Amino acid sequence: MAGNRSAEALKKRITEKSAQVGVVGLGYVGLPLVVEYAKAGYTVTGIDVQEAKVAEVNAGRSYVGDVPAELLAELVAAGRIRATTEFSEIAKLDSVNICVPTPLRKTKDPDMSFVSDACHAIREHLHPGLLVILESTTYPGTTEEFVLPLLAESGLTVGEDFFLCFSPERVDPGNPRFQTKNIPKVVGGTTPVCTEIGALFYQQALETVVPVSSTQVAEMVKLLENTFRMINIGLVNEMALMCGRIGVNVWEVIDAAATKPFGFMPFYPGPGLGGHCIPIDPFYLSWKTRQAGIEARFIDLAGYINGQMPMFVVEKVQNALNDHAKAVKGSHIHILGMAYKRDIDDVRESPAVDIAHLLLRLGARITYSDPHVPTVRLNGEEHESADQDEMTRTADCVVILTDHSGVDYAAVLESAKLVVDTRNALKGFNSEKIVRL
Ligand SMILES: NC(=O)c1ccc[n+]([C@@H]2O[C@H](COP(=O)([O-])OP(=O)(O)OC[C@H]3O[C@@H](n4cnc5c(N)ncnc54)[C@H](O)[C@@H]3O)[C@@H](O)[C@H]2O)c1
């Protein structure tokens, strides 16, 4: 009966919008979620271990591209959002969404240290009536096998005293069409009551909620989506390698194939995978299934092909320079775009960083420009984004590694001596100066 009372009281607070919402981890995923709940009329507390981020949020300054600065400032000024480094605040909250990083260790095993730290901190302040939702991408079984036993050490019972769900975050940074609010939200709970409360919680702020039968299903949904993407990118990257060898324009092939109205979905090749999701998440799945005696062969193969792309791009640059009677060693190579994808500022796992390192190792002189990335660390040294016009004019070779939409590619082609285009940014242009992937 106590359980029913906790559940009913929480449901009432959620629907009346008097629930105090909490988000742990104020990054690319957490900050947009904070804003969405504040916009929906809740008071939201963001918790992060980085004092600098907490200070930025409290000052109403956005450091996430998808969160407009004016909106954040308005919601902070209205008292709807505040941030803190104090986990003791959880004692006053009705819900906590965990949005902390889940990277890989060097051995490609999951690094659960951030989730573990967050859950230990939450356990200290777990109280009856609290809804805990893990949003970080992780291996199937994490919520039941890892998070639940930790929280249960508090002596409280899941589904009665507190409620536990997994809901994968599917945000696509830099996508103007689909953002936190209108990306359907899958949620699975540890018990049916947990699922019911988790779904009710998301229904208040997001457009579409998709309840599933368990936390494992919800965890697996995210891994299927990202593995699907990673493998298809691996396939088109292999197509690019094959087309390159036999002299066919892979981009034209994909565009023509995409005219088929059924049974085909276009994916595009590129200089390699980047970001905190596609290069990482499938390995969470293969790590888990290996323990069950199943090797994830598609994932390993796609991982291998995608991992070869930076070297393939370097070979393209080498060959292109050779054709102009130049060697990589001593040449000035200008990298256009350092972020891992278009119109964002994120350089995590960016192939541009790998390519820059490979070219530096071969003795090239590297400069870069990226309207979204003012500085980047290469070989332990800080490099600043250089003047794009001047560098494209003076470099021996320009390599387009990110196709940001604000760049004038016609002007780049006009002034450059040689362009290696790994993103088809020069689609529609014909010039002997262009070397395509
Ligand atoms: N970035 C994306 O496009 C994306 C998309 C979908 C899912 N995800 C997943 O969402 C999760 C978060 O990713 P992100 O890109 O927002 O990461 P991020 O690095 O941008 O943000 C994570 C935040 O968590 C904070 N943090 C770390 N440990 C903490 C702790 N113990 N307590 C409180 N805060 C802590 C960090 O300081 C950081 O501000 C990951 O699991 C990722 O795989 C990311």
Write the topology of this structure.
Layout (H helix, E strand, L loop, with lengths): L1 H15 L3 E5 L5 H10 L3 E5 L3 H8 L10 H9 L3 E4 L10 E4 L14 H12 L6 E4 L7 H11 L10 E4 L18 E5 L2 H12 L5 E4 L2 H32 L3 H8 L23 H11 L5 H27 L8 E5 L14 H11 L3 E5 L5 E4 L2 E4 L3 H7 L2 E4 L8 H7 L3 E3 L12 E3 L1
Parallel strand pairs: 1-2, 1-4, 2-3, 4-5, 5-6, 7-8, 9-10, 9-13, 13-14, 14-15
Antiparallel strand pairs: 6-7, 11-12
The structure holds nicotinamide-adenine-dinucleotide.
Structure overview:
47% of the residues are buried. Strand 9, helix 12 (351-361) and strand 10 (365-369) form a beta-alpha-beta unit. The protein has helices spanning 2-16, 30-39, 51-58, 69-77, 113-124, 142-152, 192-203, 215-246, 250-257, 281-291, 297-323, 351-361, 388-394, 409-415; strands spanning 20-24, 43-47, 81-84, 95-98, 131-134, 163-166, 185-189, 209-212, 332-336, 365-369, 375-378, 381-384, 397-400, 419-421, 434-436. Strands 3-2-1-4-5-6-7-8 form an 8-stranded mixed sheet, sandwiched between helices. The chain has a 5-stranded parallel sheet with strand order 10-9-13-14-15, sandwiched between helices. The radius of gyration is 24 Å and the shape is elongated. The mean pLDDT is 96. With 437 residues, the chain is α/β, with parallel strands linked by helices. It starts with a helix and ends with a strand. Bound molecules: nicotinamide-adenine-dinucleotide (NAD).
